[in-house]
Batch of 2 targets.
Target 1
Amino acid sequence: MSADAPLVRLRGVGKTFDTGLRALDGLDLDVREGETLTLLGPSGCGKSTALRMMAGLIAPSEGAVSWRTGARPEIGFVFQEPTLMPWASVEDNVWLPLRLRGVSKARARAAVDEALERVGLADFARSLPRELSGGMKMRVSIARALATRPALLLLDEPFAALDEITRFKLNDDLLRLRETMRATIVFVTHSVYESVYLSTRICTFSARPGRVTQEIAVEAPARRDAAFRASPAFAQTCQRASAALERAYGLEDAP
């Protein structure tokens, strides 16, 4: 691919699991370098399946996933649950992806410290997961994904189980990370409001088997905050995203 090609491209991608479940069908999707792309839709429409294909965790049944460089770049993945090792300290949890590559703790120290600093947990490096709040555990999970300094960060509904105030705070944390780390981000959510607040572009998914039904560019200030959430531009974009979901799911005439 040329230098201005998408970082990753999915073309004609379908996925049928061994159970016979058809998760995706004819999915076409581009991820552009430097953007924050949200895949928006309710649970069960194939968003997470598409994310796992980008991560190389599962393979498509048909179609192709191709990379601009020809090979998959460094990827960080944040799951819906923090999935931390309860017996290990915060710093050891963050060290894990580097440890699995044979990197000693001493050699990983700078990367681990940097990742914890980015998520505001430098003072909790020696704490155990049971000593942390739900939001802090998710920050550890994000730090672990950042430890390898990924070019692409994939997040699968990481804030869905958190209370609204904590969720807003972590949304702001993720925006700050985007400003400093220069990674491309793909974020899966079923929240219209979260998608508009975080994204530079939104792709809505149809009901299973999933495919992209509409793309929405998010016109917003580079720095987003509570004032943006209260702005007419935010409300209007949320309305556009909601309408796109209604069209995707055939709900325009629903009572």
Target 2
Amino acid sequence: MKGSVLTIALVAMISVTASAQAVKRPSFKAYPANIEKTKAKAINFRQSPDARSFRTRLTQAIRGGVNFAGHYIVAGWGCGTGCISGAMIDARNGYVYWPEQLNALGVGDTENGYVDEPVAYRKNSRLLVITGSPGKANDDDPDLPSGEYYYVWKANKLRLIKYIAKPTN
């Protein structure tokens, strides 16, 4: 009897582990972007008036050069404990985009503290991954659950392609 209970428990643990590993995560390679040799010289404040409030952070981000989707620059800054905000700068023309998902997003956490890379992206990919809870358009909107959110940058917007719930302990 003891052996069969142990066997059932072991099989259950293996199947839970296998199903967690079976989750297919989108890859950066699956959403390629051609890297352009463009470099924004300045923020376009005329077409991006909200950018004036974040002039220092956006200007610093431009100095770092293109880091996302071939010709964009992801700029980010802290907005409190476990909170990050950000914007996208088009290096071609200095225009600033304000995706709601980067508006005060909640950084994901583990038993050891916050995740190391709450917003992951690559220069040669249109995929952006948020680990935590994405921001929202309005403060009155409900918070989204914590997890892994996979977005593709398309037509100057982040479009959700996959959500993986945070594992419960």
